[in-house]
Design goal:
This protein is of the alpha+beta class. The chain is built from 17 helices and ten strands.
């Protein structure tokens, strides 16, 4: 008897926990896969995912067609959510993408990144000191370390008080299921709207204060762009929200996933302990092996053929980045975690015009955070292998991860 055709169903709890098992089967048997569940194409080959990231005939604006396809009642619930998210450079095509990206490039410069490293080290050491001072030998890695470190850096850059971190994190988490294409969350539209409206109100108040008393921070920079007529008020608020959300979410998951992979491979952990100069390539392997980017979503603007399949205008495309990063045509023994892997042509930070603006900062934060934690707690271990991954198709990370200091 013929076996039933493989269907990628991201609602399946087993797929949420272990998506690569299904995606790598698709990579072999059906690399351009139509998922009736997602109502879109699922691409798993490195060559195809990279081509999507580079293809001008595929649009990054996945929100406008989604919104326009909804009935009037749903549109009213989604209106505020789409209003602000549609200002994000990540969802823009040229020429709007070019205009906004050029403005953002002036905020996150290499010089700014280099100037942050001493502060990141201080933050990492402070968080580790707090864990050590408790004296119980246990800590929850995500909430006590992986999240507050990049969140604090971004809040300092924005110029908002660190005391507001829990508030802003709660609002970001409300937005996470919608942005992450959660498939098992029933209320992601309403929670996403609540989160983004709260953040817009918060940054609107901060912007009003900067108009009276400008500072040397990112909010003041965005306000000055608005006052000069280079961006609209919605773009100013949306850019603040993007800076906050994207500036810590990816790095949180990079640190959490990266530590988990390293500690599951004690030989590679020992290799890093013996040669600390490998930390840079170790972070690159963490980005490849189980990176924080599960997928990028695009919309076909002009029909084209791919591996014998026709992708029609308006079709959604789910380019599965973590699957592409395990493609044996590109990576030798891709299932092996190798901190010295070279070359390492992973696609985690995207490719082409949508290459991640914050990639240098994320890499720096991960290098510092992981090396500092291992230096203080050389025998650190994951306390419980039974972790729960977030129901987010485009993001990959655990909700919580308890560790023991050894």
């Amino acid at each position: 008897m013929a076996s039933a055709p493989l269907i990628f169903d991201p609602r399946d709890p087993d797929v949420i926990q272990r998506p690569l098992e299904t995606l790598l089967r698709l990579q072999t048997d059906d690399p351009v896969h139509w998922s009736p569940v997602l109502k879109g194409w699922v691409l798993t080959r490195h060559e195809d995912v990279k081509a999507v990231q580079m293809n001008a005939g595929i649009s990054a604006d996945r929100l406008t067609p989604f919104f326009e396809s909804q009935p009037e009642g749903e549109q009213s619930r989604l209106r505020d959510l789409i209003r602000f998210l549609n200002t994000w450079v990540a969802f823009k095509d040229p020429p709007d993408h070019t205009r906004l990206r050029s403005l953002l490039n002036k905020v996150v410069t290499p010089g700014v990144m280099r100037g942050l490293e001493a502060g990141i080290e201080e933050l990492a050491d402070g968080l580790i000191d707090r864990i050590a001072a408790r004296g119980d030998g246990r800590f929850e890695c995500i909430s006590e370390f992986a999240n507050p470190l990049p969140a604090s850096v971004i809040m300092d850059l924005l110029g908002v008080p660190r005391e507001d971190m829990d508030l802003l994190r709660d609002w970001s988490m409300l937005l996470q299921p919608f942005l992450g294409n959660a498939t098992a969350s029933d209320d992601k539209y309403e929670t996403g709207r609540a989160g983004i409206v709260a953040m817009a109100d918060y940054f609107r108040a901060a912007a009003a204060e900067r108009r009276k008393r400008p500072r040397a921070d990112v909010i003041s920079h965005f306000v000055s762009l608005e006052q000069d007529g280079q961006i609209s008020e919605d773009e100013m608020l949306g850019s603040c929200i993007l800076f906050l959300f994207a500036g810590h979410e990816t790095t949180t998951n990079l640190i959490g996933n990266g530590l988990r992979a390293l500690l599951a491979n004690p030989g590679e952990k020992a290799r890093l302990a013996a040669d600390s100069t490998l930390i840079g390539s170790a972070v690159e392997e963490m980005l490849r092996y189980e990176g924080p980017t599960g997928a990028v979503v695009r919309v076909v603007k002009a029909p084209f053929e791919l591996r014998g399949k026709t992708l029609a205008k308006g079709d959604r495309v789910f380019a599965m980045v973590n699957a592409a990063n395990h493609d044996p045509e590109i990576f030798e023994t891709p299932a092996r975690f190798d901190i010295g892997r070279s070359p390492n042509r992973h696609l985690t930070f995207n490719h082409g015009i949508h290459f991640c603006l914050g990639a240098p900062l994320a890499r720096s934060e991960a290098r510092i955070a992981i090396s500092r934690l291992l230096a203080r707690f050389p025998n650190v271990k994951v306390a419980d292998e039974d972790v729960t991954y977030m129901d987010t198709l485009t993001m990959r990370g655990v909700r919580a991860m308890w560790m023991v200091t050894g």
